[in-house]
Every structure is written in C-alpha cells, then in structure tokens.
Amino acid sequence: MPVKDMMNAMVLEKPGELLRLKVLPVPIPGPEQVLIRVHACGVCRTDLHIIDAELPHPKLPLIPGHEIVGTVIEKGELAEGIAIGQRIGVPWLGYTDRSCSFCKRNRENLCDNARFTGYTLDGGYAEYAVANARYCFSIPPSFRDAEAVPLMCAGLIGYRSYRLATKDTGVERLGIYGFGAAAHINCQIAAYQGKEVYAFTQPGDAAKQEFARRVGAVWAGGSDQQPPKTLDAAIIFAPVGSLVPAALLATAKGGSVVCGGIHMSDIPSIPYRMLWEERAIRSVANMTRQDGLEFLEIAPRVPVKTDVQIYPLQDANQALSDLCQGKITGAAVLAMDPP
C-alpha cells in the first residue's frame, strides 16, 4: 500500500480541551521502529485521564491512543521480528531502556525511562503511526481489526491484573469492580479457567449487570452490595478509591485486592482490621511483553469475544464523551475506514 505524505489525526494541544482534527505529515520510522497504516484504535479511560490532566506531563501536542491495530508498511533497518505487510497491535508500553535495574530483573513494566504510546509518544488516533518493533504483537487471525483493538490494553493490562489476582492456588471466586472493556474480556478468561466471577457495577446499572452475566459472571450487582459468597480475590478496574475498602470487606482471609487502573481517586482511610488476616492490596503498572504473548496465546482459545462500539476518527471527541458518561458497553473503537 503506498504511503501518503500527509495524514489525518486527532490532536490534543492542551489538556482540558477538545481534540482537534489536523492534517499532519506521515511520521518517518526510526531505526528500531515500524510505520503502521492504522486500521483501528481503541478509546480508553486512560485517554480521558490524559486529556483531563489527571495524568501529568503528556507530550504536547499529542496524538492520543494506545490500542492500535494496523499493517506494517515500512520498517527501520534495526527493526527485528516484524515483517512488512504483517498485521500487528501496539500497546500502552512503547519503549524501555533495557539497561535500568528493573529491565535487568525482567520487570520492564517498571522501567525508569519507559515511554508510553499515546501519552509520551504519539499514538493511534491517526491514519498512520510509528512504534518500536519490540513492543508490537502479532494479532491472531481469528480477530477482526476492531475486535482486536481492546486486546491491546483492556485485554493486556486487564490480564496482568487477573494473573496477579489469581496467582495463589485456591482462587475460585473472583470479584470484578467496574465492568467495562477490561472486565468483559478478562471475565471470559476467568470463566474459561473455571473461576466464578462476581461482577460489581454502579448501583442500579441493570444493563451492565446483564452484560456481565452474558459474558460469564455467575452474579452481578451494585458496588454497594455484598456478593452472595465471600471472594477469594478481587480486581478493581473502576478508578474509584472508595471501592478498595468495599472489596476488602468482600474478600476472604489471605485474599488480594488488585487495583488495575493507571489512575484512581484517593483511597479513604480504613481500619486495620479490614487488612488484617493477611489480606493484601496491590496495584498494576503497565504490562510486559511476556504478558502480551501469554494473553494473545490464550485469547483465541477461549475464544474471547469483544463487544465494541465503532466511531469514525473525526468523532473521537464524541467517543470520549460517551465513555466518560458511561454510555459504552464493552469498548469504544475509532475505525479509520468505518463500515
């Protein structure tokens, strides 16, 4: 496919403002990068946190978007493991230095000098994007472009949260607080692996509760409710700190509460008795390439079905508004060539 000289892109010029549709030069890939013809890009709650200045110091001006699916059309001379013409996905973690103490201990998700797609690197709200070849993943052929998009963040980071929540043997009952893109993907994996999933939504959100049951939850209710059985572990995907004590109260002795978002409102003070009996609270930061390889190996076997709402690129602001207002069931996706 021939490369154009110019492209359409949605650009954040200043936090707190709407994105602007601009015509920009198509980026040139560096030595370790590939140039991607973007087919689709996810609209994630993290994008809202960046645009609303809840995540500080983004690259400005910025092309948001860190759930990219597209085709490689050019590559730098040092870009390895990726072929021209290959369909790939690009996640949130876009670069690591490979030399800091965390990278040397195979904890690249905590790299001191990491860069992030759609935050400190330009992302996929555009017709073309560049990405480091080391942080690109081959997309399983069973997923169409828009269906594959949520796998790149909601799936990947959600899977890391799920893996940490269930790493101890004996975790059979899993609570999931906040039932959006990450929850609906990882609920399917949990059910596939024989877990009982208890889903918590905003109180009174009957549609989301029915959605949760449809993708494998054995029970769904409001976050102000207690589940019918004590949980062995819980994941909180909603960016609401007050859910932490609620999850602790619902979790059995020795259980973990995993906070799966990059941003959360403040956690209120809790009495020590909630944490006692070896309950644990932990966060999830980013993802690793190993997380990606494991997740993309299991997703087609489940098989994971993603529920997406598609918008054209120029309607990115509307997609963000709908996400902010809780109008999205599943995941919002920008399609560069919408049907």
Description:
By secondary structure, the protein is α/β, with parallel strands linked by helices. The protein has 2 domains: 6-152 and 307-335, Medium-chain alcohol dehydrogenases, catalytic domain (Quinone Oxidoreductase, Chain A, domain 1, Alpha-Beta Complex); 156-283, NAD(P)-binding Rossmann-like Domain (Rossmann fold). It contains 10 helices and 17 strands. The strands form 4 sheets. Strands 3, 4, 5, 8, 9, 16 and 17 form a 7-stranded mixed sheet that branches. The protein has a 6-stranded parallel sheet with strand order 12-11-10-13-14-15, sandwiched between helices. A hairpin with an 8-residue loop joins strand 1 and strand 2. Helix 4 crosses helix 5 and helix 4 (154-165) packs across helix 9 (289-298). It starts with 5 loop residues before the first strand and ends with a strand.
Topology, element by element:
Layout: E1 6-11, E2 20-25, E3 33-43, H1 45-51, E4 68-75, E5 87-90, E6 93-95, H2 101-104, E7 115-116, E8 128-132, E9 137-138, H3 145-148, H4 154-165, E10 173-177, H5 181-192, E11 196-201, H6 206-214, E12 219-222, E13 231-236, H7 243-250, E14 251-259, H8 272-275, E15 280-283, H9 289-298, E16 308-312, H10 316-324, E17 331-335
Parallel strand pairs: 10-11, 10-13, 11-12, 13-14, 14-15, 16-17
Antiparallel strand pairs: 1-2, 3-4, 3-8, 3-17, 4-5, 5-9, 6-7
Report the end-to-end length measured between terminal Cα atoms. 20 Å
CATH architect. name of the largest domain: Alpha-Beta Complex
Estimate the global geometry from the Cα principal axes.
globular
Main β sheet profile: 7 strands, mixed
- Average pLDDT works out at 95
Residue runs with pLDDT of under 50 for 5 or more positions = none
Radius of gyration of CA atoms, rounded to a whole number: 20 Å
Secondary-structure content class:
alpha/beta
Number of helical stretches of at least 4 residues = 10
Amount of helix: 10-25%
What fraction of residues sit in β-strands?
25-35%
CATH superfamily of the largest domain: Medium-chain alcohol dehydrogenases, catalytic domain
Count all strands and give the number.
17
CATH topology of the largest domain: Quinone Oxidoreductase, Chain A, domain 1
SSE sequence, one letter per element? EEEHEEEHEEEHHEHEHEEHEHEHEHE
The domain count comes to 2
CATH class label of the largest domain: Alpha Beta
